[in-house]
Amino acid sequence: DQQKSDTVVIFGRAEEQIGTAQSASEGVVGYKDLSTRPISRAAELVEVIPGMIATEHSSGGKANQYFLRGFNLDHGTDFGGFIDGVPINQRSHPHMSGYLDLNFLMADLVERVEFKKGVQYAENGDFTSAGSASFVLYDKLPENYAQLRIDAEGEYRVTAAGSWDVGEGTLLAAAAHEGGDGSFDLPAKLDKTTAYLKYTQPLSLGSMGDAKLRLGLIGYSNDWVATDQIPLRAVEDGSIGRFGYIDPINGGKSRRYIASAGLDWDDASLLAYYQRSELNLFHNFTYFIDQVLGDQVEQAERRNAVGVRGRVKRDFDLFGVKAEGRVGADFHMDWLDESSLYKTTARVRTSTISENAVDVMEAGVWGDITLHWTDRFRTTFGLRADYLDGEVETPVAANAGSDNGTQLSPKINIAYTISDQLEVYAGAGIGFHSNNIIGVVQTVDPVTGDPVDSPKPFSESRGGEVGVRWEPNPTFNLSAAIFALEFDSELIYVGDSGISEPSDPTRRYGFEVAAFWNPVEWLAFDASYASSNSRFQDAPSNFDRVPNTVEGVAAAGVTWLPGDGWEGSLRVRYLGPAPLLEDNSVRAPSTTLVNAGISKDFGRFEVGFEILNLLDAKDYDMVYFYESQLANEAAPVEDIHFHPVHPQTAVLTLKAKY
Question: If you placed Cys at 78, which of 109, 129, 255, 336 could pair as Cys (CB 3.0 to 4.6 Å)?
């Protein structure tokens, strides 16, 4: 019977969470949810999180743009990413603090994605006001394989991965190389290599019980030529096509190396890690305002980082009330030999805007206690305290120095189980993100010498949500939440200019709903929708829109697993319109993309075929409104600038198993 699969199919979305979850908006996605999903870039794995979208405004190796809960998260800032517990966001990054580059993530190795949204979790610290995602890698792959993935434009990806018993443990090894020129007019010259090693071994620690040892190594190298966003007027007058470019020398090179060691018990975990990263990023968004040298800039960094994360959980009775207590600590130290901004022409430095060496340390302790007042009613009270200390060395004496700050963040979550199938939640808390220490200690514009205001070490957010989770049977679940999040007015260090700029206080509120249905073993549906309203709090109603904050996000998909080795998937995602100016006079249109994929497993070999952008949409992947100047123009011109979605692309995958 070909309508029955030969093995048990597991969807992470089907995991029951009533009785354990702290909110309606947290969840787990994994296993077949991931392996059947057609994707064009690694960062799209975040789109398994209901209401989240990953786009790009510059091709190649630059971190993606992320959208969630009314935030244009830019390249990170208020969304935290972790790979096997190792934090990926980078403090005091020259492009922006909290920079979240997921280009080195190998999607094939991700077993599941655990996500949380909002500020109500004590374990979530810096860069997590909107949410967080933890990418948990396989300890042992389901199969060893070598794979070639090639698209109609000539981009390719070669992967080899496997797991083997080594001693008393398991060794996972994987490597991938990507190359090609891509689908834009400017050849991308992509040269990207990623390698992973992971060793896990069970340990017996006597009175401390059984544990699992985890050792990990990641290496990543990427060189590319980038097609940045382009001005609409140049496309409309025929100067360039919609896949064209203005500056042919943008792009960069990126390196990242991670070593980690961890121990996991049933009720405790400890992780230590080291990271080395290097980045040279060249971009030119305004073209020729400088009519002699052009407007290209380079952001450069050289970073070493170490960190330790640990937590302990204990169950106990508190005056007759069943309780669970957790305490944890995080420590992270960065040494940036270089965190600098240069004026460049054709990738050659012509002058220095800001040149810095940075040391920054952040430490946090947290704890929470969950009290089960009855079998149906529980509360979780949490508290987090963080401390940041940083020092900057720079040739501009007025901008050298040190500063520090503290942040106290209380949390509360309430859950009530109405029945075995229905649970409601309410939660609130304070969150934060750290600011670039260069901007914190800065007192003058490094170019003009004019006095500037400086941000505080931490920017605080306040938020909350109420929600419901319905799990009537093992094949269906639905969750919904209403949320709100506020940020105080703040100064934000802008890596593209080298100074801090003011941002008015903002308020975001909206709702989310997500559903999963697995009516029969060989068929599954999922859908989600999120709507948000983002406003400046103190601005007049005709001038209070937060630019580039998307008003609605939707996604839906069907997964088909009829057996006999066949798998299929069809997915659609919608990125809604957004204001581009505070008065809402210029707006970004919506974007809708459809991806489809089908594969056949022949045993030792597997063949897959995907069509990305199935309907060949001509939409924008990212869009902005600002002034720029082309070579034939006498003065800057306000215009829409956009990066198009990739054209319809056919992808062939050949896999050999061994």
Answer: 129
